[in-house]
Design a protein that fits this description.
single chain; alpha/beta; 6-stranded parallel sheet; 6 strands; about 45% helix
Length: about 210
């Protein structure tokens, strides 16, 4: 079974994430955090482990509160998204669902992820397992669960943190460079493979050995 991160891998939420980052920064008056000019500045803050990445400017506890607020704001703004699944990945997900199934492990809220997936996928093409921020445990814990009980072998993510969680759970880590992190952050985490575009991920997913 393949396991996917959602934001930055299956769904392009960078504009929404940037707007909500700026909103959370203003709401909490965290002026020491970088003022990001646009979505393509997100790699400035998406480096390494998410909350720890902000300790260059604020303390860890404040960073935890910031990302919790950010998640709430992005969840509320999800209805404004013009798209659900990245178009190149709709077909591969449907084919995976018809075969071994696939799973999603994400830091977003489960209801938001389901609503966005359902814009482009019929019920039979939805993930067999969805584990979100609504369930307890770290991302590595959730990946370990999928490895033990569902035979998961690979996690596809878009940040260095995703790569490290995959390796901690004993999974192969595939990184995509079209998401939230920059190339330096991804390569420093040492993914087992790096894919540059949604089309390259689609082709990788549909290789016979992975269906």
């Amino acid at each position: 079974m393949l396991v996917f991160d959602f934001d930055g891998v299956l769904h392009d939420s960078r504009k929404r994430a940037w707007r909500c980052y700026q909103d959370a920064r203003r709401e909490m008056e965290l002026w020491d955090l970088p003022d990001l000019a646009g979505p393509y500045d997100l790699p400035v803050v998406y480096q390494g482990v998410l909350s720890a990445s902000l300790t260059r400017w604020i303390d860890f506890e404040t960073a935890e509160r910031f990302w919790k607020l950010h998640a709430q704001l992005t969840d509320q703004a999800a209805a404004e998204e013009p798209h659900g699944v990245i178009p190149e990945l709709v077909g591969p997900l449907a084919e995976l669902a018809a075969g071994p199934g696939y799973a999603v492990v994400t830091g977003s809220h489960g209801s938001t992820v389901c609503a966005l997936l359902a814009r482009d996928l019929p019920a039979e093409a939805m993930p067999r397992v969805l584990l979100s921020r609504d369930e307890q445990g770290s991302k590595a814990d959730k990946l370990q669960f999928l490895r033990t009980w569902h035979g998961a072998k690979t996690y596809i993510g878009d940040t260095g943190s995703d790569v490290r969680h995959a390796h901690a759970a004993g999974l192969t880590a595939i990184a995509v460079s079209y998401g939230y992190a920059n190339l330096e952050d991804l390569t420093a985490a040492r993914p087992d493979q790096l894919l540059a575009t949604p089309a390259s991920l689609a082709a990788w997913c549909l290789a016979p050995a992975r269906r």
